[in-house]
Every structure is written in C-alpha cells, then in structure tokens.
Specification:
This protein has about 230 residues and is mainly alpha-helical. The protein folds into two domains: about 100 residues, no CATH class; about 60 residues. It is about 60% helix and about 10% strand. The protein contains ten helices and four strands. It has a two-stranded antiparallel ribbon with strand order 1-2. A hairpin with a 4-residue loop joins strand 3 and strand 4. The protein is elongated.
Length: about 230
C-alpha cells in the first residue's frame, strides 16, 4: 500500500535535470525513461567519423531529438561515402546500399513523438552482419574479410598508441640502426642493390645514407659504430 511518502533525495539522484522556478520544482525528467540524453559514447563515435573539431563537447546536445536526427544523418552520409571507396561485389554493394537507405529513412523520423530506435538498431546490426561476411539467411559466412593498413596508416597508429615523444625517439633509433647496417654492409662489400633489397630501401636512399655517413665521420673524427 502506498504510504504517500517519497524519498526526494533518491528521486532527484535518479533524474537527469531539475529546474527550480518561483513555485519550486517545475520539471523533473527521469534519466531512466528519457530517450534523448547526454551521450558521451555517441560523441566519441562522431569523433571517429569526423574528428573532435566539430563534435568535441557536444555530448549534451543529444538531449535534443532534432540534433540527434541531424547528427545521425550526417553519419549515414559519411558511412555511405566511405563504402563507395571500398571494392565490393555487386550483390554486397546492393545489400549495403539498401540497408543504408533504410537507416537513412529511419533516422529522418527521429523525434520526441516517434520512436524508430529499434529500427535503427536493426539497420546497424544488419550492416555489421553483412560486412563481416554473413549473408543468405543461413548463418554461414559467404565472404572473407581482410583489414590492412598501408605504411603511413601503420605509423600513425603506432604514434597514437605510444605517444609523440616515444614515437619520435623510436624513429631516431631506427634511423641510427639503419645507418649502422648500411655502413657495415658496404664495408663487407655487399652490393648496393642487395643492401636496398635487404633493408627495404631505394638505391637513392642507400646512396644518401652513405654520403651522410662519410660526412658524420669526417666531422666527428669517429667511424660509424657496428650494428650489434
């Protein structure tokens, strides 16, 4: 039986927003039942797509349905543009295009009054399922997926993981070892083309290292140390 007593402190703790007017508390919105709320995870998702410049500090904006609609539609356009750059077979291209069309249509309907959340979740799930190779409604993998990075992307990834200072320290150490190896191989009469092939360098770069090594030795009066 309801006693008529409410634990105000606990109730306020569960709310997202409390506004105080002349007549006291005029609005209480319960975080548990509000679809549109502060969303830091969604802000970070936008960072992945667009970087922090446009969406940094915008997590609170997702309390507004129209802003959520605007952001999701921009995300769909960015995803669609990225897919246009990825080689795919014709059927997968058509399927992905259809899923994105459905996602865009459901995103346009986002509002306080109309709830398309589960439709949007289903579209994203379908998208992921197709991209990792599942298809044909049979629970089997029908495509192999390969993710790879070019050299520049690998370096950028490594730099992000270890930080700028350690990254450049590592590059300097690699360059020092490269000079030592080229110098040592030349002294062992290994042909330039073989040195280039062994170290993944161009002949031009091998020549540059040789010239710079001689310059360093002349200026410092010391030979390049052996690689050990």
């Amino acid at each position: 039986m309801f006693s008529g007593k409410i634990d105000i402190a606990n109730f306020i703790e569960q709310t997202e927003k409390v506004e105080i007017g002349k007549e006291g508390i005029i609005m209480l919105r319960d975080e548990r039942f509000n679809r549109f709320k502060h969303n830091l995870s969604l802000e970070y998702a936008m960072w992945d797509l667009f970087g922090p410049k446009h969406y940094g500090g915008m997590a609170g904006g997702f309390r507004d349905a129209s802003y959520c609609r605007e952001v999701l539609l921009k995300a769909v356009r960015r995803i669609r543009n990225r897919f246009s750059e990825i080689p795919m077979d014709e059927r997968l291209t058509q399927n992905v295009g259809s899923i994105l069309d459905s996602l865009e249509a459901n995103a346009k309907k986002i509002s306080e009054d109309r709830n398309t959340d589960w439709n949007i979740i289903t579209d994203f799930l379908h998208l992921v399922i197709h991209l990792i190779g599942y298809d044909l409604l049979d629970g089997k993998v029908h495509r192999n997926v390969i993710f790879f990075q070019n050299l520049g992307q690998e370096q950028e990834d490594w730099k992000w993981q270890i930080g700028d200072r350690e990254y450049y320290d590592h590059l300097r150490l690699e360059e020092k070892r490269r000079y030592m190896l080229v110098n040592q191989l030349m002294k062992n009469n290994v042909p330039k083309y073989q040195i280039a092939k062994l170290l993944g360098l161009s002949i031009k770069r091998v020549n540059q290292i040789m010239l710079e090594s001689r310059k360093i030795e002349m200026e410092n009066g010391k030979t390049i140390p052996k690689f050990e």
